[in-house]
Description:
Keywords: Carboxypeptidase, Glycoprotein, Hydrolase, Protease, Signal. It is an enzyme of class 3 (hydrolase). One of its GO terms (cellular component) is fungal-type vacuole. One of its GO terms (molecular function) is serine-type carboxypeptidase activity. The chain has 3 domains: 54 residues, no CATH class; 82 residues, no CATH class; 98 residues, Rossmann fold, CATH 3.40.50. It is globular, with a radius of gyration of 22 Å. The strands form 3 sheets. Strands 5-8-7-6 form a 4-stranded mixed β-sheet. A hairpin with a 2-residue loop joins strand 7 and strand 8. The protein is 41% helix and 12% strand. Helix 3 crosses helix 4 and helix 3 runs parallel beside helix 6. It is built from 15 helices and 8 strands. It is α+β, with helices and mostly antiparallel strands. The longest helix has 17 residues.
Amino acid sequence: MRLSTSALVLGAASSAMAFQDQKVLSDPSSKPAVKFGSDFESLASTLKESFGELTADAKAVWDEVSLLAPDAMAAFKEQVKGIKPKKHDRKPDGDWDHVVKGADVQKLWVEDESGEPRRLVGGKLAWLCVPAAIYCNNAFIGPYQQTGYNPYDIRSKCEDSGNLCYEGLGYISEYLNKPEVMEALGAEVSSYESCNFQINRDFLMRGDWMKPIYRLVPDLLKQIPVLIYAGDADFICNWLGNKAWVTQLEWEHGDDFRSADAKDLTVGDKTYGNVQSSHNLTWIQVYGAGHMTPTDEPEGSINFINRWIAGEWVAK
Length: 316
């Protein structure tokens, strides 16, 4: 079944950044140098390494999105050409068994028809989800980027497009990239980045941005407490969208959560947010905070984290 334009629009729930400029707001007037054009097959041959074979209906979606968002598609094409991971001195997967079993990681790989290893993901779903993500990010997040405002804090302009709009992140990168600091930390890679866009692209290339991840939450709630919080000055993961999906989530105690009263969160004489909680699900809105909530509201952040760890909002 071919995805129509309206279906793509209705599916625009991604909170990721516009793919045509992952590093946020370079020159808003700049245009990609290469148009998507008719050389899709050459691009597809590269993507098949990740997705497998292209189906006819998936090709139709790519054609449609290339017409609707040509600049975004052109930028995507440039970004995926010649991607190589940074140099690293990686330890064997088994060295991290205290975090995740190396054997479990290896289970994610299978052999294709030629005997080559391939991730156990991709295929038709990825072929469809990737152009949907490109289109939706271009249509919904692109316009905000053009304003020059920080997508992590609607109250301020973007200070440094090379460091996620925060000048301070550049200072952190400079410090963590000092040879003596890297040696002391036992770094296994050649450099530190505040946001690794190779990993970002890998998630996109697996169709991750458009998958309904919220469907995993009900099963999690049966096993562990879940906390969702957002600063109300954040655009990219805005509190309105987060509260909407949390409130509408279908799970066994959903009605109890929706009927629960929101209560003020305070530190001393200051009210820094509100909390709504029932059974194992907790929602917190932090006032006057952006994406970097602990930076904008340090006292409130440590307060609700400590209370969360102490089990105040955990189902008894």
